[in-house]
Write a structure and sequence with these properties.
By secondary structure, the chain is of the alpha/beta class. The chain has two domains: about 5-100 and about 295-310, NAD(P)-binding Rossmann-like Domain (Rossmann fold), CATH 3.40.50.720; about 100-285, Rossmann fold, CATH 3.40.50.720. Helix content is about 35%, strand content about 15%. It binds NADP nicotinamide-adenine-dinucleotide phosphate. Keywords: Oxidoreductase, Pyruvate.
């Protein structure tokens, strides 16, 4: 088999690097690190394959990579990639669906419970030495079990959240989708509704959508106003699906009770962002899939995908 040039732009576990090196010439250069930027730029013109995550592979990058055949993303979301430019050049893009579904759903459900029961705030209350007498109702939270959850983005992760909510916590689940969805095992627990009904009836709204031109800014001031008073927003999709200014306004007016956010329009969240310290925001540093087991499984799948594509085989994880 012909050895090709692979550019690894986000670090991989040693054993996956060894698999790549056994088949190809490999350069490791993370363009987000100032000391590796030059090496990334230098490797692009000869690269046949790219593998990595969390970096924008746009038209400018692609223009500097004339030999590129395949890009393997170590993520399920593909909003960092210029899909039309890739298609036009006939460059294959693969991603890692499925292996991170349950872990990401765990993260979203943890955020949901933490936001409603004020877990982080109250753990800090203890840590800061403020637990000097029994708490009063000013520090009570709100129940999770039995409440209604509305899910926007009823795919793999959205449905995994629905299973936790419906089967674990007795929560009625609403979703709004462009087409009929079959949910084996959840019959009778989930209901397809209009966007208006989902916004008006849900105690929790969980976002598990991809970022696309259609979903960018989907949660805006008018949609927050249409949510039930006292509802809680959980965002585990991409930050830009939410208008953050409008979210802050909805929290400050008291219309929304709280927000649990794993993703932000700009990451890492800027020091000056009011979302960092807002008393009713639980903010996480984009940890949806960040467990040892799942990040390893993603690296293995992404490596499989690239090796297959560079060998002229068709990976099952091609982005259409
Ligand atoms: P998925 O199975 O493709 O699910 C996405 C769902 O969203 C699909 O059912 C899709 O419907 C639906 N959708 C797309 N556009 C929509 C719209 N405008 N209105 C309503 N529904 C819409 O993907 P997944 O594996 O669940 O991942 C979903 C997203 O989660 C990823 O794209 C990524 O952005 C995010 N994510 C975040 C983390 C994290 O660390 N926080 C981790 C993993 C994933 P169709 O089937 O009709 O297209």
């Amino acid at each position: 088999m012909t050895r090709k040039n692979v550019l690894v732009f986000r670090e991989l576990p040693d054993d996956q690097m060894a698999r790549l090196r056994a088949a190809h010439e490999v350069t490791v250069a993370n363009p987000k690190r100032a000391d590796q930027r030059k090496a990334f730029d230098a490797a692009l013109p000869t690269a046949h394959g790219l593998i990595g995550a969390s970096y924008s592979i746009d038209e400018t990058v692609l223009a500097r990579a004339p030999r590129l055949e395949a890009v393997s993303s170590i993520s399920v979301g593909v909003d960092n990639y210029d899909l039309p430019a890739l298609r036009q050049r006939g460059i294959v893009l693969t991603h890692t669906p499925g292996v991170l579904t349950e872990t990401t759903a765990d993260t979203l459900f943890a955020l949901l419970i933490a936001s409603s029961r004020r877990i982080v705030e109250l753990a800090n209350h203890v840590r800061d030495g403020q637990w000097t007498h029994n708490i009063d109702e000013s520090l009570f939270g709100w129940d999770v079990h039995g409440k209604t959850v509305g899910i926007l983005g009823f795919g793999r992760i959205g449905q995994a959240v629905a299973r936790r909510a419906a089967l674990g916590f007795g929560m009625p689940v609403l979703y709004h989708h462009r087409r009929e969805v079959e949910c084996p095992g959840l019959e009778g627990h989930v209901k397809a509704v209009s966007m208006e009904a989902l916004l008006a009836e849900s105690d929790f709204i969980v976002l598990a959508l991809p970022l696309t031109e259609e979903t960018r800014g989907l949660m805006n001031a008018s949609r927050f106003a249409a949510m039930k008073r006292g509802a809680i927003l959980i965002n585990g999709s991409r930050g830009a699906v939410v208008d953050e200014e409008a979210l802050l306004a909805a929290l400050d007016h008291g219309h929304l009770r709280a927000a649990g956010l794993d993703v932000f329009a700009v990451e890492p969240l800027p020091q000056a962002s009011p979302l960092r310290r807002h008393p009713r925001v639980t903010a996480l540093p984009h940890i949806g899939s960040a467990t040892h087991e799942t990040r390893y499984a993603m690296a293995v799948l992404a490596t499989d995908n690239l090796l297959q594509e560079l060998a002229g085989e068709r990976s099952e994880c091609r982005v259409p």
